[in-house]
Design a protein that fits this description.
- The protein is α/β, with parallel strands linked by helices and 456 residues long.
- It folds into 2 domains: 205 residues, Rossmann fold (3-Layer(aba) Sandwich), CATH 3.40.50; 180 residues, Rossmann fold, CATH 3.40.50.
- Helices cover 40% and strands 14% of the residues.
- It is built from 18 helices and 13 strands.
- The protein has a 7-stranded parallel beta sheet, sandwiched between helices. The chain has a 6-stranded mixed beta sheet with strand order 8-10-11-12-9-13.
- Strand 11, helix 16 and strand 12 form a beta-alpha-beta unit.
- The longest helix is centred in the middle third of the chain and has 21 residues.
């Protein structure tokens, strides 16, 4: 409710967004730990006890080769593509955008929507960057493709030494932020209130807001809940809300007026439906950008799409059966039930990976967000109109049974089978739920257990 209230009060043209590291994680950007582990392996330097700034300082000092260090960091950002809520960012006329991230995900999102974006990475850009862009992006810590090690004026702020010289190369950016703060709202979006980068940013924002004389409201949207630290900031007049970037854009998509312009993507029909974009994991995106992680499977977690695509799982026969039924195109619903821990989620994801490879649009609904049945029915009709197919996987389906009933009934009423709904649930939770008769009348039921072949 707090996030809904924040979004309801925002006017994008009078709102500044400041993105911390957490905003890029849903697009599979590397975490600071992942960068540290990669550099530790490449330079054979123990990393225990160091944060990112300390460890990169150590690597540069010992190797005497900043250029090689930057090259190694760049390899971790090589195949990144924006997904989910970040894709909706260009749909609104923000006053300005600031980020501490090195990646170019925001730039990609704007290019994808063919919307101009002025990008500033250091003081030198203020005389060179186009003035025609409606929205400006200020990259406070530099950008992945520029560093003095390669003859650039702009610097990636990685090491402790970089932080010491950062202000000299960013003074115009902070001047722009101070000017923007006049009678405007600032929303800082990050992962945790304990992040090393967030605390100095909040302090700087408070300082600049005070200098702006007619400063606006400052709000923090943090993914990890930390009520104790939140109380400290609330005592300074800052609103603290817990949620992620996708939650933010789910609420933005509900606003009236909604997005600024219609967009007809070439590669993803889902992007025509801004209300759905932040609520799903895009299977194709995960196959192309996610990193396989076998350790998670050994810890009891389901395989992710990258694990499956790289052949790190054994195929369940039930996945083959579901795929064959979907291929026939007659039913709108496939239901997979079984006891907890038998591999239902992995089996369903195996189906999606195969379908995605065949050109089918495949998505997995995020469990923590509402399933918008009416929008999915609209998307299914559009899929049918353009002669395409899609598949939506809803895990722990018993938790969304009302919306699922509405969705399946809507698809049956519309007479479309272009979108197949794949449901997975534990039997003890699924059986007592009140389900639409169409789930069985226009669907197939599959049972998965450890002691016998799926479907037996």
């Amino acid at each position: 409710m707090e996030l809904e209230a924040l979004v309801r009060e925002l006017r994008p043209e009078h709102t500044i967004l400041l993105f911390g590291a957490g905003s890029s994680l849903p697009s599979n950007a590397p975490t600071p730990k992942a960068i540290i582990d990669h550099l530790s392996a490449r330079f054979v330097i123990p990393s225990a006890g160091f944060n990112l700034a300390e460890f990169t300082e150590l690597v540069e000092h010992r190797s005497k080769d900043r250029r090689r260090m930057i090259v190694e960091v760049r390899t971790l950002f090589k195949n990144l593509k924006p997904t989910a809520g970040l894709l909706n960012l260009p749909l609104y006329d923000w006053k300005s955008i600031y980020t501490t991230n090195y990646d170019d995900l925001i730039e990609q999102a704007y290019r994808k929507k063919t919307k101009p974006l002025g990008v500033f990475t250091s003081n030198f850009d203020f005389g060179n960057t186009t003035r025609n862009a409606e929205t400006r992006l200020y990259k406070i810590h530099g950008t992945i493709d520029k560093d003095p090690a390669f003859g650039d004026h702009s610097r990636m702020i990685l090491t402790e030494s970089d932080y010491n010289v950062a202000f000299d190369f960013r003074e115009h950016m902070f001047g722009a932020l101070q000017s923007d703060l006049a009678e405007s709202d600032l929303v800082i979006i990050g992962s945790s209130l304990s992040d090393d980068d967030i605390k100095p940013l909040i302090s700087k924002a408070l300082q600049l807001n005070a200098k702006a004389m007619i400063g606006g409201r400052i709000s923090l949207l943090m993914y990890q809940r930390d009520e104790a630290r939140a109380d400290l900031y609330r005592g300074q007049g800052i609103k603290v809300i817990f949620g992620g970037i996708d939650d933010f854009f789910v609420q933005m998509a509900k606003r009236s007026p909604g997005p600024l312009f219609d967009y007809q993507p070439l590669d993803s029909i889902l992007e025509n439906y801004p209300r759905l974009v932040p609520t799903v994991t895009d299977v194709k995106h995960q196959i192309e950008t996610a990193v396989a992680d076998v350790s998670r499977m050994f810890a009891g977690w389901p395989a992710n799409f990258a694990d499956i695509d790289r052949g790190l799982t054994f195929e369940r026969s039930v996945a083959t059966g579901i795929g064959e039924q979907i291929g026939m195109g007659a039913n709108v619903c496939m239901t997979l039930v079984g006891a907890s821990g038998v591999g239902k989620t992995t089996a369903a994801r195996q189906v999606l990976v195969k379908l995605s490879k065949q050109g089918v649009g495949c998505w997995e609904h995020r469990l923590d967000l509402t399933l918008d049945a009416a929008e999915w029915v609209s998307l299914a009709k559009e899929l049918a109109r353009v002669g395409r197919r899609g598949a939506l996987f809803v895990d722990d389906a018993h938790g969304h049974i009302r919306e699922i009933n509405e969705l399946v009934d809507g698809l049956v009423r519309a007479g479309v089978t272009s979108l197949t709904i794949i449901l997975a649930s534990s039997r003890n939770h699924w059986k007592p739920r009140i389900k639409s008769p169409n789930i069985y009348k226009h669907g197939n039921l599959f049972v998965l257990s450890k002691g016998r072949r799926a479907g037996d």
